Amino acid sequence: MTASPRAEVGVFGGSGLYELLEDAEAVPCPTPFGDPSDVCTVGRLGGRRVAFLPRHGRRHAIPPHRINYRANVAALHALGVRRILAPCAVGSLRAEIGPGDFVVPDQFVDRTHGRSDTYIEGPQVRHVSAADPYCPELRAVTSDMARALGVRVHDRGTLVVIQGPRFSTRAESRWYAASGWDVIGMTGYPEAILARELGICYATIALVTDHDAGLEGAPDVAPVTHERVLEVFAENVARVRRLLERAIANLPDEPGCTCQVEPIAAGLAGP
Questions:
Q1: Rounded to the nearest 5°, which phi and psi values hold at 30?
Q2: How confident is the model at residue 96 (pLDDT cuts 50, 70, 90)?
Q3: What is the Cα–Cα distance from 91 to 94, expressed in whole angstroms?
Q4: Catalytic (active-site) positions
Q5: 3-state helix, strand, coil in the chain (%, to 5)
Q6: Domains, in order of start, for the chain
Q7: Is pLDDT at 237 greater than 90 in this prediction?
Q8: How far is the C-alpha of 6 from the C-alpha of 208, rounded, in Å?
Q9: What string of DSSP letters covers 145-176?
């Protein structure tokens, strides 16, 4: 039996990124946790072997609360991926962070519920550190490459992840902003923690598509719509692609972080 193509870097993404890779090959990726959102595509980008997986499925048919996050991360892990870059669309909770800006978060706040968010289900119990949930090396390389491309980037910030698929009420938005959080999305959790459990470096590349409802002092205070989010993301997808390529090309050959030192669940999700 022919071995599946292997990859160094994984990318989760959505609309506009399906043709991201060169010499791409579709690879079925069954996992012990069920099927991922779609088949994986393995090819080349930035001089490296890269696996791409659309987190909502190729037809964008899976809402954020129904995504099989465990299967998605496990599928990339089975292909040999040890670094994941995860573009996503977010709303801004800060007037000074506007549509078209990129944010590379260093913290998240989980406001989801009911999502399968760990590979640890007993009988042995392990606990993963979540104090610094994102890979500092991936964050630094991504932020540096964004600046080199002339992209307006915020190299830290807190991403609050809500359940979805609805957007926030104005009261919720004001609450999140008053808490000191910076951007809001629906897919950032539990990807980061699942990757950490498997010893995979992980960083989010958050593209701001709007100012969240209820945000005072922002120039665009009209409630966000699904159509507007897709419109702004489409307008910026070329910049996302260039940033991914540049970041992947400039990753050090060997990681200088500690994300991969002690995976607590690697054996549970396959090789």
A1: -65, 150
A2: very high
A3: 9
A4: 210, 212
A5: 25, 25, 50
A6: 9-261 (3.40.50.1580)
A7: no
A8: 32
A9: HHHHTT--EES--EEEEE--SSPPPHHHHHHH
d(CA 268, CA 248): 27
Q: What CA–CA distance (Å, rounded) separates 85 from 241? A: 12
- 31-59: pLDDT as tens digits: 999 999 999 999 999 999 999 999 998 88
Q: Does residue 221 surpass a pLDDT of 60?
A: no
Beta strands in 47-106, from DSSP E residues, in sequence order: 48-54, 83-92, 102-103
Please tell me the distance from the alpha carbon of residue 119 to that of residue 46, in angstroms, as a whole number.
Answer: 31
* CA dist 105 → 49, 133, 153 (Å): 25, 9, 10
> pLDDT at position 268, please?
67
What number of CA atoms fall less than 13 Å from residue 186's CA on the CB side? 18
- Distance separating alpha carbons of residues 127 and 152, to the nearest angstrom: 36
d(CA 173, CA 188): 17
Closest listed residue to residue 71, CA positions, set 34, 125, 103 = 34
Structure tokens at 108: 């998240």
Q: For position 2, what pLDDT does the model report?
A: 46
Distances (CA, A) of 95 to 23, 157, 204, 220: 42, 14, 21, 9
Asked whether the predicted pLDDT for residue 271 surpasses 70, the reply is: no
The pLDDT of residue 50 = 95
Q: What is the mean pLDDT of residues 128-139?
A: 95
- Alpha helices by DSSP H, 20-105: 69-78
